[in-house]
Amino acid sequence: MNEVIKEAKEKMDKTIEAFRQEVSKVRSGKATTALLDGIKVDYYGTPTPLNQVSNITVLDAHTLSITPWDKNMVNTIDRAILTADLGFNPLNDGTNIKIPVPQLTGERRIDLAKLAKKFGEEAKISLRNIRHQAIDKLKKMESEKELSEDLRHDGEADVQQITDNHSKTIDEMVVHKEKEIMEI
């Protein structure tokens, strides 16, 4: 029983981490290196993540700076950012690339807040699926006489408590992200 509960908790922890990574990519009007995480660059024929061919830094609240390790990659990186269609217009000076992060409009802020909520709801659905699988395993263990009915009830209560805690964490993260997005 403890193994089933432990496995469910580990899966839920991974769901929280995946949600954290997904929501970090949602723009909030502030420059952050996570905005460029999904960009791949053609590095001598191999699609390579941008952060593996350059140094990405935040210059100020509205500007990112990219310094390629190989100066020949500047134009390739510039094209990859434009191709990613993130709404950025990189400024290429031949050795570095600066990316101004534009202010968000009110309408765009509302859309991004809805997107963060959608990601949160998807993560909570994943948590409920994990809970359902764990409870099914506990019921199967009871039917195979590996657990008593009382132990199964205790295990279900533990799984539900873990699910509730993780769900609350997701809700808090969504509220935090919404505040960040709506902040001007």
Could you describe the 3D structure shown?
The protein has 184 residues and is an alpha+beta fold. It folds into two domains: 102 residues, Ribosome-recycling factor (Topoisomerase I, Chain A, domain 4, Orthogonal Bundle); 68 residues, Gyrase A, domain 2 (2-Layer Sandwich), CATH 3.30.1360. 57% of the residues lie in helices and 15% in strands.
Write the layout of secondary structure elements.
Blueprint: H1 2-24, E1 40-43, E2 46-49, E3 54-60, E4 63-68, H2 74-83, E5 91-92, E6 97-100, H3 106-143, H4 149-182
Antiparallel strand pairs: 1-2, 3-4, 4-6, 5-6
Helix pairs in contact: 1-3, 1-4, 3-4
Task: Give the structure's gist in a few sentences.
The protein has 184 residues and is an alpha+beta fold.
Order of helices and strands: HEEEEHEEHH
Which CATH architecture of the largest domain?
Answer: Orthogonal Bundle
Instruction: Categorize the overall geometry.
Output: elongated
- Oligomeric state of the chains? single chain
Low-confidence stretches: none
Strand arrangement in the largest pleated sheet? 3-4-6-5
Strand content: 5-15%
- The overall pLDDT, averaged over residues, is 89
Q: How many beta-strand runs?
A: 6
CATH topology of the largest domain: Topoisomerase I, Chain A, domain 4
Structural class: alpha+beta
CATH class of the largest domain: Mainly Alpha
